[in-house]
Amino acid sequence: MDSTSKLACDYLCIGAGTATMSFVDSMLTLSTDSTSFVIVNKQPAPGGHWNVAYPFVTLHQPSGAYGVCSEPLGKFKGRREFLSPTDLATGSEVLEYYSRVMAKFVATGRVRFYPSVTYDFDTRSFTDAEGQVKTVCFTTLVTPESYVTVPSMRPPPFPVEEGAATIKPVNALPTEEASRYVVLGCGKTGTDAVLHLLRRGVDQRQISWVVPRDTWYLLREKIWSPASGSILPFKLAFTNALLRSDSILGAFKALERAGYLGRLTLDHEPVQCRGALITTADLHLLRTVQDVVRLGRVTAVRPNRLELEKGTMPLEPGSLLVDCTACGTGGYTANYDVWSPGHIRLSSNLTLFNPSHSSALVAYIETTSTDAAAKNKFIAHSAASPLLVVDGSPNFHGHLSQLVQGVYSELKTMRAIQAHGKKSFNFYFAARTNYVAPCHVPLRKTLWVMFGPARLDKKATRLMRKIERVGFEDMPPVDPRPRKAAASPARMVA
Ligand SMILES: Cc1cc2nc3c(=O)[nH]c(=O)nc-3n(C[C@H](O)[C@H](O)[C@H](O)COP(=O)(O)OP(=O)(O)OC[C@H]3O[C@@H](n4cnc5c(N)ncnc54)[C@H](O)[C@@H]3O)c2cc1C
């Protein structure tokens, strides 16, 4: 019996993570009824990295705008899916949500879902649960470019010598007891691990925290004001700070004074921000940890000691090393064309830290034209003009200038969509995945900040020009135009 069969579809979508799910959802609404999709997914359930996240994980941004346009995830206040700083879906709630969404997709008859399979790009095929090889004939391949890595997906990224202290991914933390916990990493995952230990009653003296680089935290209750449920006051403050300051660091310090940002200690000036949101109460709790190790990244674990970039840390017997070293945003890059013939590479950078809205927009743009070059014009980054590249690395690791380039990318896409016409802007603006959509925030509040005395709309344009042409002391301009040669005195006289 032949164990090979063929599948045909318009769009072959790799993975059922947030990026792909949002793309397919919007395509189902925007494309013709005959457009078909195949989704292949390594994990048994949709939801991408949430399948292997640590048990105490939650969203760190409000649930209300996360996921796909057609299905709510957040709580309602009246008829509005309100963006509350305390409404944060747990990992299992996110997974339930995506299972529900996938069931809806499949029920349309336009989507076929193949879980627990790995697509092989070379042979254009995968082997299904029955061992049958399926070759896929498609018009367009859709790939999620972020490929999030979390600690449970791989062994520690440094050598661990035999006889060294036990090292476990953060997922094991709730069931592990130790006399000393050494938390490796200070991103959102490391921060969550320390908070988890403190909240379950572990004495801060039992905790050592390896902080390779200090980071700016976004203070959630100030950014998502419970009163307004709108992020716009923060966007206004952020825009004003960047317009007024010659350096990005200066702007961040101004935002810290205004209560939007926080850091572990005032003695250390962070030069990175990976968008981790915590509350002010969390920050105070984190500050109780006294043993903060600032010796760079871990390079090796030896019996009785930890080797780091800038020194060595002795390890007492019975220490548990908690691996939180993966960078959840490390796969975010902006050095490629989103559209090339027969291929869409989903960018997470159309709206900053919002892969849900980014993918919904890619779907919208996909339906505006068949011409790849025309569609790429909506996107701020390309292979020829990459964004986010710092020190030769294209990956987003939270450098402040990468964050500002992310803001630039968002503004540029928004302007391109605005220029494309009212219908396009209406989609951008009203999509559930947009933080300021009228389904989350009353329209009059948004219009007041955008076009009222604060004039955020005009300021955003000025900020875009500043990022493009002038830059900051700590970031060169992204698109410096050659200056016109000054007219010579002789010609001026003539
Ligand atoms: C702890 C944590 C908390 C976060 N909280 C938020 C938040 O509150 N709000 C927010 O907006 N973002 C948040 N993020 C950011 C996160 O990156 C996005 O939310 C989003 O989940 C990323 O989705 P993705 O589809 O790009 O990638 P992934 O989740 O990595 O999905 C990609 C999928 O593709 C599959 N795949 C890859 N290759 C193949 C192949 N060859 N064949 C078959 N399948 C394949 C993978 O197995 C995976 O299932 C958080 C991230 C982390 C790590």
Describe this structure in words.
- The chain is an alpha/beta fold.
- Among the domains are: about 200 residues, FAD/NAD(P)-binding domain; about 110 residues, 3-Layer(bba) Sandwich (FAD/NAD(P)-binding domain), CATH 3.50.50.60.
- It is built from 14 helices and 20 strands.
- The strands form 5 sheets. Strands 1, 2, 5, 6, 7, 19 and 20 form a 7-stranded mixed sheet that branches. Strands 8-18-9-10-14 form a 5-stranded parallel sheet, covered by helices on one side.
- Strand 19 and strand 20 form a beta hairpin.
- It is globular and about 65 Å long.
- It starts with a strand and ends with a helix.
- It binds flavin-adenine dinucleotide.
- Flavin-adenine dinucleotide binds next to helix 1 and helix 3.
Q: Remind me, CATH topology of the domain at 4-147 and 333-384?
A: FAD/NAD(P)-binding domain
Amino- and carboxy-terminal Cα gap = 90 Å
The CATH architecture of the domain at 4-147 and 333-384 can be given as: 3-Layer(bba) Sandwich
- Sheet with the most strands, sense and barrel status: 7 strands, mixed
Structural class: alpha/beta
Instruction: State the oligomer.
Output: single chain
Mean pLDDT: 93
Q: What are the low-pLDDT stretches, counting only 5+ consecutive residues below 50? A: 485-494
Assigned CATH class of the domain at 4-147 and 333-384:
Alpha Beta
User: Ions, cofactors, ligands: which are bound?
Assistant: flavin-adenine dinucleotide
Summarize this structure briefly.
The protein is an alpha/beta fold and 494 residues long.
